[in-house]
């Protein structure tokens, strides 16, 4: 029998909606995703990325004084910043659904319960002790010449990796220790927790000269990516952020022995992107003996040794240490207790997606 091909727009509405729903990428709390953004201090970095910034979904209705200094923008994987070129971010999995047509956008907005979460964010919350939903979905807007691209993340469960345009202009402790709070989409005032799973990309150059440093305050003052790492750790300790983790992504770290992926997911956190996954590394040297040297694991261990068990917000970081336990300005050990950086820091290895 001869068959007739119908254009998609001429198909029955019920069939079109079913097709759109099949096109959705499944999202669930059991599979956190990984997203990448550049972060820029536009007052000091200039307007280089002005046309690649994301905006708050609420627009002029947003009542939070947001974006006063820092902005999120397209990441850089290659020679230039781009939302699409070589970008592994999981938010691109939904790019087609957001941009195909009005009908597909309605389907994905319903899938993510955008109206529900937008209403929640407009209401705000009355108490810092309110339950913070794991499945909260935050919409971001990227305006461009042909319209606006909307994409969504689950900031309370997803990994958000920030690529500073200039580590010396982002989050310098004495001027703005809480630079994460400049992003209104994840502000505590609307029931969010900032980025509980925050990440930076590690480079082996961070280890250069580290063995010669005796006082962690040197790193704290350093206008470098590793200095930013230390300052974020200090911010997390100072704000009692025990539910937040700062991850270092080490692209060169490889396990000596392979592990079953399903068993691995049950033991450690795994964040998925388009073509790769980021797996929480074990701090056991034997698991990474071939790539341990100058790795993110060795770097964090060395920073932990520099702290010497001292809470990094303690004033003794400024006047130096004396002996194995104690410092020049403290009378007794009991005054400052013991600190382990692994409470706030973790390392992620990168693997190809299966």
Write a concise synopsis of the structure shown.
The chain has one domain.
Can you describe what's shown?
With 354 residues, the chain is α/β, with parallel strands linked by helices. It has one domain (8-352). The protein contains 10 helices and 11 strands. It has helices at residues 13-23, 42-45, 95-99, 102-111, 114-123, 216-221, 225-238, 261-267, 296-307, 316-319; strands at 34-41, 55-56, 70-73, 138-144, 147-153, 159-164, 197-201, 245-250, 270-272, 276-280, 345-352. The strands form 2 sheets. An 8-stranded mixed β-sheet has the order 3-1-6-7-8-11-10-9. A 3-stranded antiparallel β-sheet has the order 2-4-5. It is globular. 36% of the residues are buried. It holds the Pfam family 2EXR.
Tell me the domain tally.
1
Main sheet makeup: 8 strands, mixed
Order of helices and strands: HEHEEHHHEEEEHHEHEEHHE
Q: Helix proportion of residues, in percent?
A: 10-25%
- Going across the major beta sheet, what is the strand order? 3-1-6-7-8-11-10-9
Q: What fraction of the residues are assigned to beta strands by DSSP?
A: 15-25%
Specify Rg, calculated over alpha carbons.
22 Å
- Tally of DSSP β-strands: 11
Unreliable residue runs: 319-326
Structural class computed from helices and strand pairing:
alpha/beta
Shape: globular
Distance between the termini: 42 Å
**Counting H and I runs of at least 4 residues, what is the number of helices?**
10
Mean pLDDT: 78
């Amino acid at each position: 029998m001869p068959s007739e091909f119908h254009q998609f727009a001429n198909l029955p509405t019920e069939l079109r909606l079913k097709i759109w729903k099949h096109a959705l990428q499944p999202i669930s709390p059991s599979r956190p995703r990984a997203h990448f953004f550049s972060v820029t201090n536009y007052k000091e970095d200039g307007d280089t990325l002005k046309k690649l910034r994301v905006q708050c979904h609420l627009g002029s209705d947003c009542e939070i004084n947001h974006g006063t200094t820092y902005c999120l923008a397209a990441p850089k994987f290659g020679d230039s910043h781009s939302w699409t070129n070589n970008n592994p971010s999981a938010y691109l999995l939904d790019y087609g659904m957001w941009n195909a047509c009005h009908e597909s956008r309605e389907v994905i907005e319903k899938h993510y319960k955008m109206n529900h979460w937008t209403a929640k964010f407009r209401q705000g919350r009355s108490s810092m002790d309110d339950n913070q939903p794991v499945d909260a979905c935050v919409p971001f807007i990227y305006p461009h010449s042909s319209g606006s691209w909307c994409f969504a993340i689950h900031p309370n469960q997803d990994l958000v990796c920030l690529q500073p345009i200039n580590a010396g202009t982002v989050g310098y402790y004495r001027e703005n220790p809480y630079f994460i709070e400049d992003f209104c989409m994840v502000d505590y005032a609307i029931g969010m927790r900032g980025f509980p799973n925050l990440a930076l990309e590690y480079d082996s150059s961070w280890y250069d000269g580290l063995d010669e440093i005796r006082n962690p305050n040197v790193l704290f003052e350093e206008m470098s990516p590793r200095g930013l790492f230390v300052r974020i750790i200090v911010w997390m300790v100072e704000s009692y952020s025990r539910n937040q983790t700062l991850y270092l992504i080490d692209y060169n770290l490889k396990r000596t022995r392979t592990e079953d992926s399903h068993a691995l997911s049950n033991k450690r956190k795994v964040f998925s992107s388009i073509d790769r996954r980021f797996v929480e590394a074990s701090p056991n040297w034997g698991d990474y003996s071939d790539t341990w040297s100058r790795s993110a694991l060795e770097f964090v261990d060395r920073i932990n040794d520099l702290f010497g068990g001292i809470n990094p917000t303690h004033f003794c970081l400024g006047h130096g240490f004396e002996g194995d336990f104690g410092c020049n300005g403290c009378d007794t050990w009991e005054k400052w207790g013991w600190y382990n950086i692994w409470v706030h820091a973790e390392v992620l290895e990168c693997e190809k997606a299966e």
